Amino acid sequence: MLKETIYTPRGVSKGFFPFLKSGFVGLKEGHYLGRQLFIRDIKAQFRDSFLGFFWAFAPAFVTALLWIFLNHSRVISVSVTGMSFPVFAITGTFFWQIITQSITLTMGTINSGKSLLTKLNFPRESLLVQAMYKLLYNIGILLIVTLIILFFMGWRPGVSLLLLPFVIIDLLIFGFSIGLIFLSLFTLVADFSRFISIGLQLLMYISAVVFPVPETGGFGTLIFKLNPFTYLVIFARDILVGMPVENLPLFLGISGVGVILFCIGLMAYKITMPFIIERMGS
Amino acid sequence: MEDKEILVEVENVSKRFCKDFKRSIRYGFMDSLRALRGKNMDATTLRKDEFWSVKDISFQLRRGECLGLIGHNGAGKSTLLKMLNGLITPDHGKIVMRGKIGALIELGAGFSPILTGRENIYNNAAVLGFSKEEIDARFQDIIDFSEIGEFLDMPVQNYSSGMKVRLGFAVASFLNPDVLLVDEVLAVGDLGFVLKCYKQIDRILPNTAVIFVSHSMPMISRVCNEIILMEKGHVKYQGKNVGKGIEYYYSSFLNSADCQLIFTDDSILFKECIFLNTRYEKGIAIIDWNESLEVVLTFENKTHKTVPVFKVIIYDKEQREVAVLYYNKSFIEELSFGEISIKLKVKNLQLSNGLYSLSVAVLEKQDNNMFLRVNSIAYFQINHYLPSWTPFLLDSDFTLLSSSK
User: Fold this and answer.
1) Residue A271 is nearest to which of B5, B36, B98, comparing CB atoms?
2) B85 CA to chain A: closest CA distance, Å?
3) Which member of B5, B87, B114 has the closest CB to residue A48?
4) CATH code of B360's domain
5) Given A36, A120, A184, which is nearest B109 (Cβ)?
6) Which of A153, B110, B129, B204 has the fewest CB atoms in 10 Å of its CB?
7) Which of B5, B27, B88 to mutate to test the interface with A (most CBs of A within 10 A)?
8) How many Å apart are CA B292 and CA B290, to the nearest integer?
């Protein structure tokens, strides 16, 4: 029996959960192709690049080095408790990179799949798989380099490190979902991609990445506390460095929100994709 | 033929687009929300700034059949093809596709410029939905067909556009799809390759339903056994009579390609062209096959005293020069200023069924020193019951000399 495909202008009439499930089925179906596309990208990436891996971790360390330098030369002075400032800055930028990369790489991967999307019919979810692989790859390299550097700075792995993979996946899901939800804006409205790059920079400074939450109270502290990324970064850093963790329930709550966001993102992707493709032209 | 299964079913399919991009984004979000709430997305009316890109198209295609989609640029052919391929969803109607779909909407889509031809074959086929085993089985055929040979391990970015087309076509067509969608892509290849492509389409056609978009009517008439002529999204002609559809297509160009003045030095002007002993339909002279073509050309002579050369050329509907009228000067002794008329006659005109146009050039000598050139001064239609895609249908006698029992 031949496979039958039907195209009609129907909306999502199957109901919430079947539709969500079809998203996950799509992820499974698109896995082979997604991996293939990922391998293609990696091969291509190293063919016209001499520095290869370097670009996977360079951005994180440039930011960290800048802040370490500023602090060291006393242009600014940040005092952190429980660890040295360089460790604080490096771990902070590491986790921040996970969040920003998972937002921008997701959007970027799908955006660069434009020519495929408008010309060929394939499981649309494969681009998501491709983005996930890319993310894991980049973050994996970044993680290894970060751990090596931390080791030379006197950091030793503790038991809490076992929790690190979960924390990283948590951050990835969070960023990935945000990327998916705003994907349609990103691909169609040019303003939005500029907005994202500025917004993420701004967000970094209110997420306890390169300096801790101010103790002064007032408006500054309030902004930090209202920002969910603050808790994610602080919690992740505490895990990595082996500090006693604060706010565990809050963290779990935010993680739960992440999972819900992921489902919303997946559905948003499925729903908006036909409209995006229509408007991208060829 | 009739008992073969239907692979493509299209019922009253329509698609609307918005002319204003910002508004189209707004509509897109509104529609996304409607889709999210599970509303019926069926649309039969247009909103502000929208138009029907495709309107009420229906057809069925069985295995072994080839449908040609023709029409002017912007008629909706590619939109329809994209809907068939599932790239965009229809706003109204229903499309059912059965089996594996191969699409040549854009050749080399999915090629990564920096990877080699070999790597791209696997990638591209994976995007088209084929597994590694299927590709392995056909790998050699693909390479042979595309004539990539020694360049197989060169990055695709260094390929010529012809090489990319060959590779893309080979990948899509050798993987034995049930339905093959071909957009106007083959035009890039050289003649040898185009011929090879047709051979390949012929080879897979018995087991495939092919939908073919092209602006090349000889190709359409060569491959297709059914045709849809689209105009501004609507069907203008649909049926098995391919020749008739193509005829409609050509006749739709008549209004846009009226008499074109190509060159003049103002020494002589073209006035009019009248056919004698014939009937007109919609401004086109109708001449039965093997009858005479009789024309009177009128010019206004401003400065010429010596008789120039009048060159009358017959063009076919593809704007190919088909014939030139043999010219002997002996009919005029002296030229006066003012209006001059020349009568031409071609006896037993054996052009094949179809539409032709006349162009005229006035020169000092044969092929030298042009005074005037006007294209498409008049159209005429040759009438014969046989559709034919060669320019001439020559009157001949066939005699049986011997016959074995």
Assistant:
1) B36
2) 6
3) B114
4) 2.70.50.60
5) A120
6) A153
7) B88
8) 7
Q: How far is B30 from chain A (nearest CA, A)?
A: 10
Residue A92 domain-assigned (yes or no): yes
- Work out how many domains chain A is built from and give that number: 1
**Would you list the DSSP string of B114-156?**
TSBHHHHHHHHHHHTT--HHHHHHHHHHHHHHHT-GGGGGSBG
Contact (CB<8Å) B115/A43? yes
Tell whether B402 is covered by a domain: no
Of chain A, the percentage scoring pLDDT greater than 70 comes to: 96
Claim to verify: residue B300 and residue B183 sit in the same structural domain: no
Chain B, window 177-196: residues with a beta carbon less than 8 angstroms from a chain A beta carbon: 178
| Chain B residue with Cα closest to A29 | B129
Q: In terms of residue numbers, what domain contains A48?
A: 35-280
What integer pLDDT is reported at residue B1 of this predicted model?
A: 44
Smallest CA–CA distance from B101 into chain A, residue: A121
* Cα–Cα separations (whole angstroms), residue A144 to A132, A236, B142: 18, 16, 42
Tell me if ipTM is over 0.85. Answer: no
Compare all CA atoms of chain A with the CA of B35 and give the residue at the minimum distance: A11
Question: Is the model's pLDDT at A106 over the cut of 70?
Answer: yes
Chain A interface includes B109 (CB < 8 A): yes
Whichever domain contains B148, its CATH number is 3.40.50.300
> Does residue B29 sit in the same domain as residue B156?
yes
pLDDT digits (tens, 9 = 90+) for B287-306: 999 999 999 999 998 888 88
Mean pLDDT of chain B: 83
pLDDT in tens, B101-110: 887 777 666 6
**Which chain A residue lies closest to B39 (C-alpha atoms)?**
A11
- Cα three-residue angle B279-B280-B284, rounded to 5 degrees: 135
Would you state the pLDDT for residue B228?
92
Best-predicted range by mean pLDDT (A215-219, B6-10, B73-77, B160-164): B6-10
Per-residue pLDDT at A282 exceeds 60: no
> What's the number of domains chain B is made of?
2
Taking the C-alpha atoms of residue B215 and residue B366, their distance in angstroms, rounded to an integer, is: 34
Question: What's the whole-number average pLDDT of chain A?
Answer: 82
Does residue B17 lie within any of the structural domains? yes
The reported pLDDT for the residue numbered B136 is 87
Residues 6+ apart with CB under 8 A from A77: A71
Residue B95 has pLDDT above 80, yes or no: yes
The residue written with tokens 């009177």 in the block is: B296
Do B21 and A279 lie within an 8 Å CB cutoff? Answer: yes
State the amino acid at position A168 in one-letter form.
Answer: I
Pairing of strands B234-239, B226-231: antiparallel
Other Cβ atoms within 10 Å of B358 Cβ, number = 23
Domain-embedded: residue B391 = no
**Which SS3 state, helix, strand or coil, does residue A199 take?**
helix
Tell how strand B309-316 and strand B354-365 pair up.
antiparallel
In the prediction, which pLDDT does A32 show?
Answer: 83
Model pLDDT, residue B329: 66
